[in-house]
Amino acid sequence: MDGATQRKVAIICSHGGLDEVYPSLILANAARQSGIDAFVFFTFWGLDAITESKVDHLHVNLAGNASSVMPTMVAGLPGMESIAAKMMQKQMTDLELPTVREMLEILDDSGARLYACELAMKMFKREKKDLVAQVQDVITAGDFYDLAEGAQIIFT
Amino acid sequence: MSAIDSTQDTVLARLASIEAGVASMLERQRRQDEMLDELRPMMSVAMRSVTQRLDEFERKGHAEFLRELSAVGQRVLESYSADDVRQFGDAIIGILDTVRAMTQPEVLSVLGEAAGTLAHAEKAEALGLVGMVRASGNTDVQRGMGVLMELLKKVGQGASAARRSGAPVKRLEARISPRATAGALASTAPKSRAAACGTMKAAAPAAEVVSIDGVAFTPDGHLADPSAWTRPLGERLAATLGVQLTEAHWKVLEFARKDWEATGSAPNIRRITTSIDVTTKELYALFPKAPGRTVAKIAGIPKPAGCL
Fold first, then answer.
1. Tens digit of each residue's pLDDT (9 = 90 or more) over B1-34
2. Chain B: nearest CA to A122, how far in angstroms?
3. Residues 6 or more apart whose Cβ sits within 8 Å of residue B201
């Protein structure tokens, strides 16, 4: 396929919950598997997914989640999110789903490109060295649009 | 004569007493008249003042009431559109129907009983799980549960009906919009077939299986019958997909075929990289453009399942 017809997707990952990061990563991976170019822009809480110290400890958002089996009153108790995250991790392991860190490695290997949002980096006082190695660059939203020109944009 | 005199005396004496009575009556009347004469001006002043005061109060009250009423009207006008009011009008009928249904004597008696129980709520004992189970043996409780279940069912039906009532619009949308998707599918199918087999240039009309040079393909470009696959056919397929097969390619292809034979489904990228000694990066280098699908196409097996 020539460049003119090459499909592209640009995925914006703005949340840091385990349940919120996976869809972005899986969509990006599915795109690559289908021969579609994929760009992922991590912004706001989504930065946690590419932050070295956080990537292995992402939580599941339970409180205020209408799909959660746990009532919000219970979900808000301390430690509940850790328990839920562990349970979800276990389910994912059973399904042979890679961890978020592995997913990032797979995405990088498959040629997907990962970017961090410059403004969010400043807000959360993070530097490029705090991020996982797979992140290509820290860029602005405008830069992201330039890179992803002609792409279908997916916001998660 | 003396008899006449005595009668005359009696009459006179009676007349005198009558006169005295009349005089005292007149005197009383005169005094009353005098009092009234004195009172009248006072009364009229007092009455006038009271009437005025009342009138004033009334006017003031009415004005205030009217002012408030117009303020309410203004607020209603500001907050609700004509449509809202129309909807409200429709709703009133429903509300009245509900009120009518709720004020049926039998309903009222049930509610009255229930209210009575609530009024004496302090008499009710605290009930735990065990108590609840025990109470469920009581026929009254059972009937009550039945009624509550019916109520729940109705609420559920109402909710479903409310959801369904939104459906016609969606159906209409669906009828108008999905053409884009259908069109996209129709246009990609012949393309992928052509990609799978360079020899076929003319796109056949959408069909289940397309036969090229005596080999049958599915519309998405995979071999229709995996058992018909041979190594030379794999090489030909690879060539049409622009892949120059090497030993490394064959290692992946052989695993894919073996895995398909063993499991009945084509391995996805994740399964390939975790099963044999090849990394994701290498796989994308060996089979650029959708490695999972390309491997499956060349290996003559169906499209891999799953997202990984």
1. 566 777 788 878 887 888 887 888 888 888 877 7
2. 32
3. B194
* Chain A: residues touching B (Cβ < 8 Å): 1, 26, 29-30, 32-35, 96-98, 105-106, 109-111
Select from B274, B281, B307 the Cβ nearest to the Cβ of A109. B281
CB contacts, 8 Å: A8 with chain B: none
Rounded to the nearest 10 degrees, the angle between the axes of helix A18-33 and helix A80-94 is 30
Q: Strand B210-212 relative to strand A37-42: parallel, antiparallel, unpaired? A: unpaired
CA-derived radius of gyration, chain A: 16
* The pLDDT of residue B216: 87
Per DSSP, what are the bridge partners of residue B215? B212
Q: How many CB atoms lie within 10 A of CB A24?
A: 24
Give pLDDT tens digits for B160-210: 776 666 544 444 334 333 333 333 333 334 444 333 333 333 344 445 777
Instruction: For B45-71, give one letter per residue: b (16+ CB within 10 A) or e.
Output: eeeeeeeeeeeeeeeeeeeeeeeeeee
CA dihedral A78, A84, A86, A90 (to 10 degrees): 170
pTM for the model stands at 0.54
Given a contact cutoff of 8 angstroms between Cβ atoms, the answer to whether B266 and B260 are in contact is: yes
Instruction: Answer whether residue B124 shows pLDDT above 70.
Output: yes
Is B280's CB within 8 Å of A29's CB? no
